[in-house]
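Reopening: Zinc-dependent metalloprotease still failing for me.
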Amino acid sequence: MKLHLSGRRPRNRRPTALSSPAGRRWGSGAAALLLAGCATLSPQSPPQPESRPVHPVSPGETPASKASADAPSPSRVEPGGLKPFAEVVRGATQTPGYFPLWRKDEKLWIEVPVARLEQPFLLTVNIDSSVGERGLYASQMGNSWVASFRRVGTQMQLVARNLGWRAEGQLALQRAIAQGFSESLLGAGPVASQEHPERKSVLLDAGFLLGDVAGYSGAIEAAFRIPYGFDRTNSFFEQVWAQPSASSVKVRTHFAVPRLPQASSGARVPQSPPDARSFFVGFVYNFVRLPEQPMRPRKADPRLGHFTDAFVDLANEARTPGRVHFVNRWRLEKADPQAPLSPPKEPIVFWLDKNIPPRYRDAVRAGVLEWNKAFERIGFRDALVVKQQSDDADWNTLDARHASIRWYVGADAGTARGPHHSDPRTGEILDADIAMADVFTRSARRFFVEQGTRSAAAAETGRPGAADEHAHEPAADDCHYAMEAAAELDFALEVLAARGDIDPDGPEAEAFVQAVVKDTIMHEVGHTLGLKHNFKASTTVQREALLDRTRTQRDGTSGSVMDYNPFNLALPGEPQGAYINTTLGPYDYWAIEYAYRPLPAEREEEELLRIASRSTEPALAFGDDYDAGGFGGFEGIDPTANRFDLGDDPLAYAQKRLRLTQELWQRVQSRPPSGRDPVRERRILLGGFRQLDRTIELAGKYVGGMVQVRDLPGTARRTYTPVEPARQREALRLLTSHLFATDSFRFRPEFLRSLPPDYLDRDAEGPVSIPDAVLRVQSMALDRLYSAGTANRLLDLPHYLGQAQAAQALSLAEVYRTLQDAVWAELASAGPIDRLRRNLQREHLRRVVQAITRPAAGMPPDAVSLLRWHARALEARLQQALRRPGATLETRAHLEDSLALLRQALRAGMQRG
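Support: Ran it again with your exact input. Result attached.
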């Protein structure tokens, strides 16, 4: 956590290992943990601190040997049974700091000044070590709370303050808020001593930190569906650090289960620990002093994307809506306010953790310092500084003093995260710890041999749960740019290698990897500066400009590094622009200006409105995760807000990726197989299907889609503009004519016969099943086009159009007719139906039957009626097709089975959900 932002070396105290404790088991805390990358530098680490024997001293005072003067008689005990302060800590070692820490053997006490009771501070929990799979990874930031200590008799409670509702300056309303909205208890422990006679402080037994304060057991249960219990006896304190601004405690907690459940129970047994019945998780708890002078908050504007701290302002009865959003940003002030370009009083310092592989530190450092270009535009020189943690450092970058970038590994890890902790009173960012997954050190190609074949296991074996046994599905608030960037790197390298343009094991490929690392770090640093994703930024660059090497090398391939930007691959015969986005875009400069430009208080509101009003400029288009859709049950409706597209025409880009995939498949089938990498061709084949997923996502948004802009009311632009009917029909044709066509998936038999699995370490068994892999892709397209969201948007579309436009609009009936005609095209002839097509037809029929017998929640009645009408037309066509001779036995059996199923559905009563 980053509280030390100056160029001075932070004061430190030596972390001291503590032995494993023994004692009673503690219950879990009430709060749940939210599971919400340097040139070669001379090592610069804080001076090595020293441990000192116990002597009661004031925080920050140099300990002196005065125990004999302070220590009362051992027999002195308060009526309540509490021993004198000095007696409790006799023989212990003190670590002075914000809350002084006292340790002796397995015991740890927190010294709490009486004057600080009920006073707020920031409590953060970071995950130092973990299981290594299914989302339970090391080097992650956890949750944070504004908390306080409350004494209740001989107990001390750690309470999370409720700041979601506020009424500044109105005492009566503040009383009502306190009564109406509860605080939360995070943990509690016994008061261990009498009040110190001089410092007026008491000792708190810190044993409650060996409980599940972070609520991690819930994440463990969700990951494995096994009731692992917290084991207090074998959990222990590892290290402590403290300084005047923060005190940190590192604990190692043990989770265990007496026996593992049977495989039939639905449990997911961990694969990483040596014994799946037991594993340790390390937490770093930080008690952080909140800024004595709160930073002046800056209100957010919806036309840009910043993370915020939000609350309901009950003091302002006229506010609609009642929530106030403060931009998350670092406190950045000029050392010389009058200078056009000045260094900050305290720069934003990122420490590169010693666990970052040395070969990538240059790229990581470059990714951080790229952002200085944006700050120079608004008058700051060297706003961001990078320092390298030395290899012999014994302090932890997850403590409260260092913003950091850390590497982490996991059996299925593929995400990079750029979280931060902020002061919710003002939005001031106090700390940030970027976690970068090790998807590049093992090379993206090897990573996707392991992960790509596993994720394809369901398609190859027909077992829907096969992929789920090993893969972790990122949470909605995860940034999985690293994993996706690695997949893009793998695809790009294979296309260029197949063309003979690059050696995938040569220096050019290594330069690609370094560029992707820099790009990923730029993206994650953007998050730690307070910027959200911008999934419209790629559409601000014209397609023709992407073919201009000079322009793309200078300006990049996208309008923002906060987009998910793929490799810029040209088709054969096209000029090749820069492959990778390596610099900030116009949106990044704009977003940094809004959050960080120094503004006088009396003109801030006016100036912010002026900055935000530039949203109408085409180069500053913005759309966040919700606009892009794809999680939490929300379908994206805006075809210009996408992950991994390039250029101002996403539909054209979808067609381009389809052609690149087909090119790669054709080239790899024409070359001799690789002897050094026996599963390379298998990986390329399956990786191509992954690229088709992007085609479906991009094209699917056009059908019933609306372009959304983030202007405030009163501008010339409207919030929603329906996609032109011709573009919607073009997207529909792309899906039905290419992805539903058998000819799109013809592979040479001799090629398929030469695709072995990894015999030494395999999860995918036997030969690749092309029909199953094709069906998975086609099912994605059917799911999108037959979804309740698509149906509702197409039915609503006429309300957004004039009468003449509505007559030309793509209707839901036309979509259903087009899909059914494309899927069942063979019914017009008496010829055989290929297995790929039979599979597609079964999937289509399954969705139709489901919709007319048990409609999904949200499916509009008009859609059900239309599907039933088209189903009756399909019934008649099936009957007619069965009367014609010449069909193969497989075809006839398929048609008879389909007819029987359809008849049964049409005659069944509807079950309304």
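The chain has a mean pLDDT of 85. If you still see a failure, please send the error message rather than a screenshot.
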